Amino acid sequence: MSMNFENYHKEAKTWLHELCQYLGIEDEAKSARIFRSVLHAIRDRIQPGEAIHLAAQLPVVWKGIYFDGFSLHEPVRIRHEEEWLEFIRSKDAFAENGDFPTLDHVHYAFMDVMRFLRDHISEGQYLQIEHALHSEIVVPV
């Protein structure tokens, strides 16, 4: 079986380009950091088995980014939206430099990423993620 790195790159770039549209920004590097931050927060908030199921639906390049720093863990307990937003923000080293200057920015980025995921992964997987997040964490309909 040959590895077609060009296709992996193309698929990752396609997702990134589409994500920019969902986020309403043109800066692909910023969009990638935001996506990584939200993915890592979700990954650390859900059960490891669910995290692995989500990864299975990501393009290969995004799968690698998603698993960077992953370890088997007990899910982080977060029950309130503000705590959740701060957790997402903590996953982005550039948050203070402009990616997430306020919690409102984090909130809207999270909502946009969730809409993007809803449109790019299976409905069943999306519903499992939505269910794994506490009801106090607002998830877009």
Task: Please give a structural write-up.
The structure is a single chain. The chain has helices spanning 5-23, 28-45, 48-55, 60-67, 81-90, 103-120, 123-132. By secondary structure, the chain is an all-alpha fold. The chain has one domain (26-132): Uncharacterized conserved protein DUF2267 (Globin-like), CATH 1.10.490. Helix 2 (28-45) crosses helix 4 (60-67), helix 2 (28-45) packs across helix 5 (81-90) and helix 5 crosses helix 6. The chain starts with a helix and ends in a 9-residue tail after the last helix.
Question: Percent of residues in helical segments?
Answer: 55-70%
Q: Any idea how many domains?
A: 1
CATH architecture descriptor name: Orthogonal Bundle
Please tally the β strands and state the result: 0
| Low confidence ranges | none
CATH T-level fold name: Globin-like
Number of helices: 7
Question: Would you summarize the structure shown here?
Answer:
The chain is mainly alpha-helical. It has seven helices and no strands.
Helices and strands, with pairings:
Layout: H1 5-23, H2 28-45, H3 48-55, H4 60-67, H5 81-90, H6 103-120, H7 123-132
Helix pairs in contact: 1-2, 1-6, 2-4, 2-5, 5-6
